Amino acid sequence: MSSTLRWSGGVIEGFYGRPWSERERGTLLEWMVRFGLKTYFHAPKDDPHHRTMWRVPLPAAEVETLEARIAACRECGIDLVFAIHPGLDICYGSERDVALLIARFEQVLQRGGRDFAVLFDDIPGTLAPADAARFDSLAAAQANVANQVQAWLAAQGQDGRLLLCPTAYCTRMANAHLGGEGYLADLGRQLHPEVDVLWTGPEIISRELSPEHLAGVGRLLQRPPVIWDNLFANDYDADRFFVGPYAGRPVEIASLVRGLLLNPNNELPLNFVPLHTLGRYLTALDAEAPASDWRPRQALLDAVGDWRLSFDLLSSEAAAVTEDELLLLADCFYLPHEHGDTAALLLSEVTTLLHTPPCTWGEAGKVTRQRLADLEQFTTRLADLRERPLFHAMSRRLWALREELSFVRQQLDNLERASRGTPLRPDDDHLPGTFRGGFVADLRRLLPLQSGQTHQPAARTRRAGGGLPLLRLARPDDQAACYRVCLETGDHGADGTPFYTDDPDALGRIFVGPYLAFAPELSFVLEDDQGVCGYVLATTDSRRFFERYEREWRPDLVAHFPKPVGDAASWTRAQQVHWEYHHPDYHCPEPYEQYPAHAHIDLMPRAQCLGYGGPIMRQIVAELHRRGVPGVHLGVSGRNQRALRFYARLGFEELGKTGAPGAEVIYLGLKLAAEQERPT
Ligand code: GDL
């Protein structure tokens, strides 16, 4: 394997968020030397002098610091690249702006800097009017600026190099024509051949970089790209960090790239494994080693072995952190697109337990639950880490992991209790709306799981068959699917399809449609791999809801569905429902003020008996509670004994009945304030 790396592999400090401190950069240099990384690329997005204040000369103190860093890098044989990001407001055609850019580079050159970069990522993809009048395209405008900088650099006679980050810096962006049609080809043609071009791969966060892909990019740009690798970047996701191995880049790419720079986790202490494994990978690239010598999992095991030295605990009583524990931690916080082996296995075991009756769990169930408990306990033990910066870098994510583990444990306990007929334990220590709450969380719940994930692909690979269903807010286009759920549960909880062949939507029109229309914020659907498999619908104020139903919904029903005539005993079920369109029942149990909300839930057979009902009801109850509702009621067919037992377990109490014996509707109520009282 022969490598033509012009920029030795290294690290790009190119993330959004707090830039690393000089002390952290010192640690970084130590690690880089240890792991054989040779380029440090300075491009911290939220350093004002890098981006928003790029025109302002570096203050004296910053220049001093930078000079010291350049010297420190040089001492350890590391090249420092100094980058500026002027793209947010540069006027490409302005001589003054180009002069200011060069003046900033000049400042650094005076203090020992040699290599530079101009970054045009994450900026508008079109030219402002003044530039549009002067340049044919964004590519022409950017090439013009970069070529002037290149000319200045060449004139310094110091062998310095220039890099440029294009505005479309991955295939997805290029395919969306960011920067205009033919942007990359134009750039490749117009940019001075000595200027290197940064590239993140098929995606911003690329799972793989294949030789075919890179060969194509090289042809387009008329030079092999320098990879800006965001594999371990976590600035886009506050819940995660990545400590899996460098992976998805076969060594065959060596001759197709001019360099490889890793933009890693914001938290420096979390970059030990990423940089350790990157070092291994670069060795495999350089050493003309056979491709089979590069094995990411082995590289991870080696890195974890070394990382363990940083996991000393303060308390001498506590059991030392083992390599297996650390590997599980790495597998839980692995890579953006996948979980590590041991975490994937645990996830699939838990999935199985949640999808199968507790009586079948057996010994395997015990082992899994013990593993969950051990991991929960391990996250607690880590609070005792001697290396406080390492602990602080992880602590919030460890907390989240621990909380979710405890929810899983409680859910499994409750499934077991439910199967034995024992009352459920409240599974939530949190006042609804606190943990997992907030505006961002609410926004997230508005969307189906796959939305907005171009930047953050779902870690859904390697899961056991099926997958857990998702409860999400209903959308208008869910109506047909929800009507079907209503029908398939429309015979006192059983499938009503055979009874409504003359009008399959009859029930949905009263029990689903108005909720989706009038209370969309309280209409949730349960969705699994096959589509919508259930819903829970609610309204905070039943009387106001019925008033609106009467005004805006029923007129349409009565206009379209005539009141059935003749002997009621001969009506079809659908006709009986049509009769209800004409004679609505707006009964609300008393005391209304205490139970003004109402809700109902229906789950298709494939989603029944899997323990989803409890969490779903608790979610809707929490939503109602957050809206300040004092209590909620619901009506259940007196023949649906299973439902009555289910609501009793959730704490609902009978408020009254209506209807003739044998066809009774039993009204149940739950006080929400009382529901929140913690057991003592
Ligand atoms: C980006 C940004 C980078 C950021 C990364 C991950 C490039 C060229 N630019 O788009 O600054 O850290 O995504 O969020 O990658």
The secondary structure category is: alpha/beta
CATH fold description of the largest domain: TIM Barrel
Rg over CA atoms, rounded to whole Å, is 31 Å
For the secondary structure, the number of strands is: 15
Give the C-level CATH assignment of the largest domain.
Alpha Beta
- Can you say what the CATH homologous superfamily of the largest domain is? Glycosidases
* Total helical segments: 23
Order of strands in the sheet with most strands = 1-2-3-4-5-6-7-8
Largest sheet: 8 strands, parallel, barrel
Tell me what the structure shows.
The protein has 680 residues and is of the alpha/beta class. It folds into three domains: 7-306, Glycosidases (TIM Barrel, Alpha-Beta Barrel), CATH 3.20.20; 323-442, STAT, domain 1 (Methane Monooxygenase Hydroxylase, Chain G, domain 1, Up-down Bundle), CATH 1.20.58.240; 455-671, Gcn5-related N-acetyltransferase (GNAT) (Aminopeptidase), CATH 3.40.630.30. The chain contains 23 helices and 15 strands. Strands 1-2-3-4-5-6-7-8 form an eight-stranded parallel barrel, surrounded by four helices. Helix 8 links the parallel strand 6 (196-199) and strand 7 (226-229). The chain is elongated. It starts with 6 loop residues before the first strand and ends with a helix. 40% of the residues are buried. The model is unreliable at 448-466 and 674-680 (pLDDT under 50). The structure holds 2-(acetylamido)-2-deoxy-D-glucono-1,5-lactone. 2-(acetylamido)-2-deoxy-D-glucono-1,5-lactone (GDL) is lined by residues 14-16, 45, 121-122, 165, 169, 200, 204, 228, 230, 233, 235-236, 263. The site of 2-(acetylamido)-2-deoxy-D-glucono-1,5-lactone has 16 residues, from loops.
